[in-house]
Design goal:
This protein is mainly alpha-helical. The protein contains 8 helices and no strands.
Length: 262
């Protein structure tokens, strides 16, 4: 029977597919860490109180990248170069989602609108990350090799999503509600397209590595198309709603460490 669990078990059990999976994940997390670190350094003076939370977000992303690299090292594997068409974070930037890297590489302070754009982008992408990690948590929380990593990263992603909700609501109450909703909608629609394209690219490479038969590839392709159709029609709405989270001040403390994965 074809299921998310069975597909991921195949990827996990094969060194080359596991190597590609962890390399893609580590690269994306490291990129997110750099972006958040630069944003924390460039937060405008009026919002300096937000900087420690943005920095914590970046530290968590860096930690996740180290965790995926540690999982590779544990199996005696080295990271591989991430294929361009599987690079989710870079493709989002290419489509104009989030803050441009040219802006982040400069030393000019960001505007409040830039911060709102960053938070809206993060709210959308952290929704995806939280859902993906909860799926892995459902099936692999007690796995001897990846269980601890899945539990830690899933908890962090839930914290990141809660933080985005809380901060965006704060900005909405300060008068930025229309800009927030417009940016959230634009980000959500672009993200579901990028996620679809990356899903196709990853599936194609995993299929070659694992020698999936044509029928299985067709079934997975149909599943990706169906998910995209649902998200384009109504599913995107879950990415743009805002509500005060149960986890308040979710990024108010220091990041946890990764010593257990070394």
């Amino acid at each position: 029977m074809l299921s998310a669990r069975s597909v991921f078990e195949e990827i996990l059990d094969n060194d080359e597919s596991f190597r590609l999976f962890c390399s893609i994940a580590a690269s994306g997390e490291a990129q997110g860490g750099w972006e958040n670190g630069r944003i924390a350094a460039l937060v405008p003076a009026a919002e300096r109180g937000l900087a420690p939370r943005v920095a914590r977000h970046g530290a968590d992303e860096d930690k996740h990248g180290r965790i995926f690299n540690a999982l590779l090292k544990k199996r005696g594997l080295r990271p591989v170069e991430v294929p361009h068409d599987t690079d989710y974070t870079m493709l989002l930037e290419k489509h104009g989602i989030g803050l441009a890297h040219d802006k982040l590489k400069a030393d000019k302070p960001l505007s409040v609108q830039d911060v709102v754009t960053y938070l809206a982008h993060s709210r959308v992408t952290e929704q995806r990350a939280s859902e993906q990690m909860r799926l892995l948590l459902k099936h692999f929380a007690d796995h001897p090799d990846i269980g601890r990593a899945v539990r830690m990263i899933s908890n962090d992603e839930d914290n990141h999503l809660a933080y985005c909700h809380e901060e965006l609501l704060r900005f909405a109450y300060a008068g930025h509600g229309r800009a927030i909703q417009r940016t959230l909608r634009d980000c959500a629609h672009a993200e579901i397209r990028v996620y679809r394209d990356v899903s196709f690219a990853v599936m194609e490479r995993m299929g070659r590595i694992l020698h999936w038969p044509h029928a299985k590839r067709q079934l997975l392709t149909a599943g990706i198309h169906a998910m995209y159709g649902y998200e384009r029609a109504v599913g995107w709405r879950r990415m743009v709603s805002l509500e005060m989270p149960d986890r308040r001040d979710a990024l108010g403390g220091p990041a946890t460490t990764t010593t257990e994965f070394a």
